[in-house]
Amino acid sequence: MSQPMFRAAEEADIPEVRRIAAAAWTPIFEHFRELMGDDLYQRERPGDRRKNKADQVESHFRNHAEWAFVVELDGEVVGFCTYVLRDSGVGEIGNNAIDPDYQGRGLGSAMHRECLRRMREAGMKYAQVGTGLDESHAPARCAYEAVGFRQVLPHVDYFMQL
């Protein structure tokens, strides 16, 4: 496998970034529906979640292009990463994904290392990333831990039927 290249997204990349976002989050949304049940899931997460996620990613690329990049492999966009640099000196990795067809090859960890490099270069003192504790987020947790992140604050959402 050749080395990934990290670059700013171009207008022509947006459809592929949207496709990757929708594909990468599909298993997560399906897992949430399974855990929550259809009725609660529809109430708490209405609409087309895949489209909403793709819209969210596109919005970040358009409104904060300086805090986003794509991962290219052999001339093909295979991933993306968004982030924020806060005045507090804490950089936060936001939406990020590798195309499911390319996962498991170390590209996610390489992408996160690139993001951390950019944060250091910008003067950030800390980096933060949030993810789920459920089974569908296990690959993301592994990628974050591979570059040095450690869980600090746990989070749990409780629901009950009335």
What does the secondary structure layout of this molecule look like, with pairings?
Layout lengths: L4 E3 L6 H23 L1 H7 L4 H15 L4 E6 L2 E10 L4 E9 L8 H15 L4 E4 L8 H9 L16
Parallel strand pairs: 4-5
Antiparallel strand pairs: 1-2, 2-3, 3-4
Helix pairs in contact: 1-2, 1-3
Textual characterization of the structure:
By secondary structure, the protein is α+β, with helices and mostly antiparallel strands. The protein has one domain: 3-Layer(aba) Sandwich (Aminopeptidase), CATH 3.40.630. The chain is 43% helix and 20% strand. It is built from five helices and five strands; from the N terminus they run βαααβββαβα. The chain has helices at residues 14-36, 38-44, 49-63, 107-121, 138-146, and strands at 5-7, 68-73, 76-85, 90-98, 126-129. A five-stranded mixed sheet has the order 1-2-3-4-5, with helices on both faces. Helix 1 (14-36) packs across helix 3. The mean pLDDT is 93.
